Predict the structure.
Amino acid sequence: MDLNVNQIDLVVAPIAKLTLILPDEMNEMQNVAFYRQSNVTNEAPASFAQARIWLDERIRFDPDKTQVAIYNMPFVYRLQLDHTLSIEQLRHALHLTVNKHPSLHTSLHFDIQKNLLMQRIITHEDKKNNNLFSIIKTAYETDEQLNEILHNEKRYPHLFDLSQGLVFRCHIIYYKQIASNHLLSHKDLLIFNFHHSLFDFPSMELFLHDLNQAYTTGQLLYDDSTKLRYLDYAVIEQQMSMTGASMFWLDALHDCKLDQLLPLPFDRYRLANEHRTGRGTSISFDFGQDLSHNFLLHASSNSISLEYLALATYYVFLFKLTNGEKDLCIGINTHGRYRDEFESIVGMFVNAIPLRCQLDPHLPFHKLTKHVQDNMINCMKYSYFPLQRILNQHPNISNPVFLDTSFEFISSMTKDEEYEIMIGDSRLSLLPYSIKISEDEIMSKFDFILSFQHDLHPNEFSCTIDASIDLFNVETVCIIAQRLQTMLHQQFTSFSSQMNRPVHELSIILSNEQYLMQSMNNTQISCPSSLTCIHHEFVYQVMKHPLKLAVELDEQSLTYCELLYYVQVLSLTLLNEYLISPGEVICQCVERSLSMVIGLLSIAMVGSAYCPLSLRDPPQRLKALFDQTQSRLVLVHASTPTVFSPDSLTLDIDGIICLEEKFTEINLNKLSNVPVTPESTVFVIFTSGSTGIPKA
């Protein structure tokens, strides 16, 4: 064994970079042999991916509602003009293709005795006279009728029977009437529909390849005795130790709050026992030529992939959207085909993994992007580790809500050839469509997902936000999309000047909101008197309108004269009993009330600086702010909780103003003689502290 160690590396490398994963464990997947399991005939435990989909459909969603069959996978094709397709040849080709791929006739059932979800390959002997899949024929005349048919293929939960292995169906849709010549022609459609627990998107390429070959030649040649089956993969997967991946994920998610929702701007919350409806809304926008060009330029100049750049952008957006949440964990799907042997297998390989970013808001964006890239590369290296095993490392987590916020990056071509397939000599076009529940609603299995789309033909980008209407109003999602657009233009339109700015300086405030804030902050008014201090102006209003209402809250109100009386009572108390001197900072921690106004004006009248503290802040933050002001006194009132330590000097406003106070000329002269000028500090306010320690 070679024990030579580079001492320089030990000195320079940060502790966070050290790992206990051995070299053999880092490459543990390369050492696993995937081969036909001779001791397994037709039944084995379900794979982790199958179990996740099977459980998800039963637990997270309500199976009794027709709009939540989110794991139906319909692919819709229309014959092009002057092309025809033989129904009999298609039927024969489908039988050959389904027979070749066991996943297309595999059942899933829960074995109570074993306490396991099991999969079983259904054979012709099991079915006897019944088919391994179904072929349905219908006709349509109007677009409305066609949309209803397509809609039902996606949303209807009882199209498949997983317990019987009915996981694939072919729906033939004729225009106007079912053809008597058994030929499909222009305007007729084909729908190949699969259940996701036995089929993923890469499987479609295998399916179409074999279907075309079977249709053209009338046969499919393969060795069923030696061919690696999905069933074999599931058995081997269950037996793998995956020690290296286990250690990686345990370290990557240390102290991560996987069961806490990101504080997105929800309009409402879902109850613990409340099912998802599967209903969502979708908002999309294009980058346009200039923004797309700058996005590409940023990626190339920083040597980073487009996907990692998009993901880093998403993290920054979530940081801003959650008002400074720095520990961001989202879920993404990975294809799961990490070995070449899996490329020829039809089945469900998709794994869901957590992607965590502990964001440093002081980093410039290009450095944050590098951090995200390094983290993503490591996560993808161990993405074969099943989600169930990741969650088993955190037994106290009852609901992994991080999966509800997701991300995807899609590269595609808009050329028509990309959406065309051949079956024999017939050319069919794939019809891309989104399933709508109504005019304004789509199917959605996530609470919030951002999709970056890269259209390779014009080399431009677009974004789509899908959000659950269980939690968001449509208007809220529209505003969120506008905020993302605003941030993207800040980041990339003039990115050379933004390069070294820390990410916390990015803004998602919309232009109309900026205008509103500027107008609200434009408080300069011309006053009729020559006096310029706030409390002087207040006394001037008292003299001018002593009996008019000065302040009103719910059923309570005070006239200017009454308000001045209480302000004078509290002010004299501050001067006489607490010996407050001009220029001191006085904190006030009260709820919205008349007492708040009395306290504020009293602090100004004695020449002190007013510092508001929020009752919503935790005690630690309140104490830190109080200590930072070096204030001797905190004004409180009756409903203020006891959040300050006993050594903090507090004064109950309500207790003071209830006392009967007899004014004398000497008392009032004392107030009049307080030296206050327009240059005196009137208030002290702190930042939120989202980028570090709150600053005054």
Q: What stands out?
A: The domain at 534-672 is CATH 3.40.50.980 (Rossmann fold). Residues 474-492 form the longest helix (19 residues). The chain has 22 helices and 25 strands. The radius of gyration is 34 Å.
